[in-house]
Amino acid sequence: MNQVRNSWVAKKDREGAGFVDAAEWEEVKREGEDAIKEWIDDQMHGTSVTAVLIGNETADRDWIRYEIKKSIKRGNGIVGIKVHSLKDKEGSTDFSGSNPLKKFVVEQDGDVQTLSSIFPTYHWDRDNGRENIGDWVEEAAQASNQLSDVQRRSVRRRESIAEGLNFDAGTAVVLLIIIAILIDQYTDIDLLENFDLSQYQQRTGDDSMFP
């Protein structure tokens, strides 16, 4: 990830910005879980934003999850940066991985939000990270300032795909109908005969989407 590390504009040097060499990380891992947590906590000291570099397998790594939760609880903003298309030392790139920020939510008064809906994720190449990373960091810090203490303390893993999605009832019905239409058209299952579409058509005045 040298392209990102060497372009860091929020600090004068890479260590001050919280970037470390792979060899140091491997050494810390050999010391066990408690040592890893302590090391991550130390790396966050004096920071206000955590940059999560997202590759193919990032979302499945336990210590990335710990880092995300710890960041929110201590009040850090988070900026997600997709780096799978950056070439490694052998000139190879990787496939895009899932966004780990989609796997966490915060909650207050029954309102559940995914971290990905609060903190944007950018593509290093496509979104010109070399020029814009400073703005991304500032935006993440501002977004974090909008979170309440209750939301920060509530951060947790998402329990289901639907959790944190803000669908209203009408949107949910439309999606279900579209799914039913696709199933009806491409399988032998006839689901549409079980739907009464007349009320929806009368309410919206739109029958163009229904066969």
Descriptive overview:
- This protein is an alpha/beta fold and 211 residues long.
- The protein folds into two domains: 2-157, no CATH class; 169-204, no CATH class.
- It contains nine helices and six strands.
- The protein has helices at 2-5, 22-29, 33-44, 62-74, 115-118, 129-145, 149-154, 169-186, 198-204; strands spanning 49-54, 77-82, 104-108, 111-114, 121-123, 156-157.
- The chain has a three-stranded parallel sheet with strand order 1-2-5. A three-stranded antiparallel sheet has the order 4-3-6.
- Helix 4 (62-74) links the parallel strand 1 (49-54) and strand 2.
- Helix 3 (33-44) crosses helix 4.
- The N and C termini lie far apart (51 Å).
- The relative contact order is 0.11.
- The model is unreliable at 9-17 and 200-211 (pLDDT under 50).
Question: Which terms summarize this structure?
Answer:
42% helix, 3-stranded parallel β-sheet, 211 residues, alpha/beta, globular
